[in-house]
């Protein structure tokens, strides 16, 4: 069971900016979005900090996680073309209860919260586009959560590793295991019987 590969937010954004509809806003867009290179292991948001920027990933991988006792539990694993932020912290400008970090050297286009708010007030076309992209991501994420809720651990693992967005073999297995609500040992055991549509084990 493989999800149809969809066009990712950054690609949609860049394609839209190149259309005649946005021609007069291109220069302002490049001023608002700052290209930034981030080294592997860079903490973008820590627990207790406010998430002050949203990131469109050009290359690399970003992980978000929260603490449960002494264990860190992965809440998101995202890569090229995706949007990264701790949504509750960014949109409410409150302290984060999660950590967001890079797992690879990563190139992003970032926009500050102040820039985001200014854009929403002054550039209606870009604001509408960003809102549309964020809504699409929220719906997509909700669909994944709902699907995972009804699948066994074995089926969740098999489903994830066969998706176009899967980061299997690219990030440590224990990050994926906690993201899927299981342990490293169970993840390893389930891989032995999983059906691989995308990757040969």
UniProtKB/TrEMBL annotation:
Pfam family, one: cNMP_binding
InterPro entries: cNMP-bd_dom (IPR000595), cNMP-bd_dom_sf (IPR018490), RmlC-like_jellyroll (IPR014710)
Residue span(s) of domain Cyclic nucleotide-binding: 37-123
Source domain of life: Bacteria
Gene3D superfamilies, per the entry: Jelly Rolls
CDD domains documented for this protein: CAP_ED (cd00038)
Protein's name in the database: Crp/Fnr family transcriptional regulator
């Amino acid at each position: 069971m493989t999800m149809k590969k969809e066009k990712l937010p950054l690609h949609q954004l860049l394609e839209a900016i190149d259309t005649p509809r946005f021609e007069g806003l291109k220069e302002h867009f490049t001023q608002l979005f700052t290209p930034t290179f981030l080294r592997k292991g860079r903490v973008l948001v820590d627990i207790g900090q406010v998430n002050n920027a949203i990131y469109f990933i050009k290359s690399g991988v970003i992980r978000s996680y929260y603490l449960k006792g002494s264990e860190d539990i992965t809440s998101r694993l995202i890569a090229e073309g995706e949007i990264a932020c701790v949504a509750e912290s960014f949109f409410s400008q409150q302290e984060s209860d999660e950590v967001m970090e890079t797992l690879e050297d990563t190139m992003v286009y970032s926009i500050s919260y102040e820039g985001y708010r200014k854009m929403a007030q002054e550039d209606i076309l870009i604001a509408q586009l960003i809102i549309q992209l964020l809504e699409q991501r929220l719906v997509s994420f909700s669909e994944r959560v709902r699907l995972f809720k009804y699948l066994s651990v074995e089926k969740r693992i098999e489903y994830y590793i066969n998706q176009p967005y899967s980061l299997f073999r690219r990030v440590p297995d224990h990050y994926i295991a906690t993201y899927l609500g299981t342990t490293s040992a169970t993840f390893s055991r389930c891989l032995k019987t999983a059906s691989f549509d995308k990757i040969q084990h």
